[in-house]
Amino acid sequence: MDKEQIKILHVEDNKELFELVDEILSNSNIAVSWAKSLKEASAKLSDEIFDLIILDLELPDGNGAEFCQKLKKERPDQSVFILSGDDSVSTKVMGFSVGAEDYITKPFNVLEFKARIMSRVDRLKKDKGQVSLYEWKELKVDISKHDVYILNENKFELISLSSLQFKILLYFIENKQRVVDRKELVDSVWGDSVFVSSRSVDSQISKLRKKFMSASYILESIRGEGYKFNPTNL
Questions:
Q1: Within its chain, how far is the Cα of 159 from the centroid?
Q2: Does residue 103 sit within a domain?
Q3: What does the pLDDT look like over 98-110, one tens digit per residue?
Q4: Is 57 in a helix, a strand, or coil?
């Protein structure tokens, strides 16, 4: 579990409720910041990145749902939980439609509230612990952006891979310096419900190696066994 602190922004005009939420989440390696208006929330979001936003719908200077909708368009990966006194089904549906991952009604049960927040926090911590960028002497791969850079003539060039080619490359990265045979590659990348011939596998590997240009050697062919991903460590 990543020990990096999770940061939550609570957008709520009721100070007592903010203090209650802060107390509930204390001792959980979570830092809870407070914004009592949408204007304050916007200012904090422009200066700092928050893992989760707990958002009220009725705020002094605007509608939380509209704020959430605008925010999710700008930052699709931003996690938002709505915490509202409106328990109507139509409002809950609206909350999910604007991009909220969860909708919690006030007043809430403390144990249930904490369990729902911590469930999301655990997933966030897991995501923080995952490697997104891989780098070798001749290759850089940004998993989150699906960007692949190859060193060509002493400079890195962004290359275009198909979805299938990127999946193949990712599988090799996860199994680097180990010989992967064709059947394993088919089962893991294409799936065992699809028939793929050895010739098709070799064809995809050949296309991938061509895109690697002068670094094609990082996908090594092991005669009679399969392929080995063997880039040069930094």
A1: 22
A2: yes
A3: 999 999 999 999 9
A4: coil
